[in-house]
Amino acid sequence: MKKRTLLAFMAITLCTGMQAQTRTVTLYNDDLKCKGGRYELPTINYDDNTVTISADTVINATVVIKDADGNIIHEEKTTATQAETTINLPTSEQQDKYVIELYYDDKHLYGFFEETEDKNQ
């Protein structure tokens, strides 16, 4: 019985370690024009196949994801709220590096992210 429990624990630990690690995209802007005082940036997280966007305030944004060569691989209009909006990266277009751009109001934000999974495994 102890061996089965140990094997089950090891299997769960191994599977948990194999899951994709979620990372946060740092957002940049070239010329931030915002009216009023406080300005909150949306949060963008990613793992190997998925990008999630959330914001403290509701924003209606156009999201553009480009590959390292500047080719658009995904574009959509979405509403970002505190609940995460999920974008699945097209599996046929998966590259190592990406640029994500957000356009809303008079703002243009962008950030960089790259695939975290080792393709040789």
Question: How is this structure best described in words?
Answer:
The strands form two sheets. Strands 1-2-3-6 form a four-stranded antiparallel sheet, with no helix packed on it. The longest helix is centred in the first third of the chain and has 17 residues, at 2-18. By secondary structure, the chain is mainly beta. Strand 7 and strand 8 form a beta hairpin. The radius of gyration is 18 Å and the shape is globular. The chain has one domain (21-114): Immunoglobulin-like (Sandwich), CATH 2.60.40. Helix content is 14%, strand content 41%. The protein has one helix and eight strands, in the order αββββββββ. Residues 1-20 form the signal peptide. Keywords: Signal. InterPro entries: DUF3244.
The helix fraction, in percent, is 10-25%
Would you state the CATH class?
Mainly Beta
Gap between N and C termini: 33 Å
> What order do the strands of the largest sheet run in, or round the barrel if closed?
1-2-3-6
Please identify the structural class as seen in this structure.
mainly beta
Task: Examine the secondary-structure arrangement and name the CATH architecture.
Answer: Sandwich
Which percent band covers the strand fraction? 35-45%
- Globular, elongated, flat, extended or rod-shaped: what is the shape? globular
Low-confidence stretches: 13-18
Which series of helices and strands comes N to C? Answer: HEEEEEEEE
Quote the CATH topology.
Answer: Immunoglobulin-like
How many beta-strand runs? 8
Arithmetic mean of pLDDT: 77
Largest sheet: 4 strands, antiparallel
The number of helices is 1
Rg over CA atoms, rounded to whole Å, is 18 Å
Tell me the count of domains: 1
InterPro entries: DUF3244
Protein name: DUF3244 domain-containing protein
Keywords: Signal
